[in-house]
Amino acid sequence: MSRSTSRTRPPEELRSHQWYGTDGLRSFSHRARTRQLGYLPEEHLGKPVIAILNTWSDINPCHVHLRERAQAVKRGVWQAGGFPLEFPVSTLSETFQKPTPMLYRNLLAMETEELLRSYPVDGAVLMGGCDKSTPALLMGAISVDLPAVFVPAGPMLPGHWRGEVLGSGTDMWKYWDDKRAGLIGDCELAGLENGLARSPGHCMTMGTASTLTAAAEALGVTVPGASSIPAVTSEHDRMAAASGLRIVELVHQDLTLSKIVTSDAFQDAVTTVLALGGSTNAVIHLIAMARRAGVELGLDDFDRLARSTPVLANVRPGGDTYLMEDFHFAGGLPGLLSRIPDLLHLDRPTVSHDTLREQLAAAEVHHDDVIRPRDRPVAAEGGLAVLRGNLCPDGAVIKHIACEPRLLKHTGPAVVFDDYRQLQRTINDPSLGITADSVLVLRGAGPKGGPGMPEYGMLPIPDHLLKEGVRDMVRISDARMSGTSYGACVLHIAPESHVGGPLALVHTGDLITLDVEARSLQLELPDGELERRRAQWAPPPARFERGYGALYADQITQADTGCDFAFLARPGRVPDPYAG
Length: 580
Ligand code: FES
Ligand code: MG
Fold this sequence. Notes:
The structure is a single chain. By secondary structure, the protein is an alpha/beta fold. It has three domains: 274 residues, Response regulator (Rossmann fold, 3-Layer(aba) Sandwich), CATH 3.40.50; 37 residues, no CATH class; 149 residues, Glucose Oxidase, domain 1 (3-Layer(bba) Sandwich). It is built from 22 helices and 14 strands. The chain has an eight-stranded mixed beta sheet. It has a four-stranded parallel beta sheet with strand order 2-1-3-4, with helices on both faces. Helix 5 runs parallel beside helix 6, helix 9 packs parallel to helix 13 and helix 12 packs across helix 14. It is globular and about 75 Å long. It starts with 16 loop residues before the first helix and ends in an 11-residue tail after the last helix. The model has no long low-confidence stretch (mean pLDDT 95). The structure holds FE2/S2 (inorganic) cluster (FES) and magnesium ion (MG).
């Protein structure tokens, strides 16, 4: 049974009452300014104020429909007796923002937190979906701990080109490699430009966006089934209106985020990501969100749960055929979760139901090849493995279901690139002697060194090997990888090279052993050699001398702890704005 609306909070209990309802000069001023905004007293006084945080922007194709969609959220809020106010917040466009929107995830998290805290807000609707916007909005909202509902932007429609169905991101990489291998030319590329991403919405593969919005649904902060609804459909409008209705009820029930995003909820979000064969980026973002909620979540949780969680979503790039629209019509996340009830905490609340069990009661799967049954999984174990070893003392991550099996256990000589520009300049240089057995190593691409851990982790395979048909190699870095990428890429090495992690000490020609079964990544060096090299290592100069980049480098934490800012991640008191 869904949540009832039995209780209406008296106006004096609402947070916004301090702004509007008290006797002093300030309330008089705030009421006068709300008249200036064009509202009658009876339209808003005593009603829950709902902030709609909207990441819409002309530069963000994944969110370009959210300006209009916010109107549906407002409709729901009005109908439920709330007072909606839309706040434009910064947009993180995975495609356009350089060097990477990851550099700005924490900035949007800060903006979210401070807007909600400093304005007369009783509850929030958070609108986003393109990769980092989901964790950013949730991290900020969790820190304020008001009631909140997340409205996922929704996936774009499937791509089409010459009779083929295209996945955004995934097919971009694939066809770019085909162009480099001389298999297609400019004419084909022009057609692909039109077909790869053909509607508003986030990437429709199981990339970072689809993974993180599904994680938000699994956490319990969206209305049921919200995360896979295609962005441009009427169903998406209805979901937005339902979210507006719901948030007002949550304010009346005082169901703040901390009551939803519990330790059990985060464990279930991890299980969900694994059952989806989701993006490696989820590891960093879920750890960051959990820490904001005061929940201890670490790399070992991912590895432990991966061993008992089958991959059931047959969605590219982890699966081989389908895209998010197929997943949606196959039953979406409720369908998938209905196949793993034994792996979930069913008695925890969500924004819509008293328990997850109730929420999933009517869930069904309508297409067994898209959402696989337990006895026919895409992979028997979850898609991620956490590696340890002398090259990554604080851990590293590999999406092993997306690599060629022959590389899961591999020893090869390192070819080291000190930064991404050097890699771009020299990767095709024959004098490097790169073979299919080489281990490509990129450093200087971590949280501090990148800065912002750009998605450089799927290092390009040299042209001469591509022409020979080589499509996968072992690649290791302190970078991240796009959720739509694939290959034997070891990512998120911690500590990163920029702060003196062992990755900084690798020489070209050193042997490196990857053994996914043993969860190990080793630099094969004689005893004492690593220490000898460390004694000679000097830290690189700071990348930023001033500005946000300098603040970022000063405060950013390493990948295994979520890349939050230290001053945001730590617990502590923040004064109420009205207490001064
Ligand atoms: Fe926005 Fe892929 S570019 S989700
Ligand atoms: Mg991405």
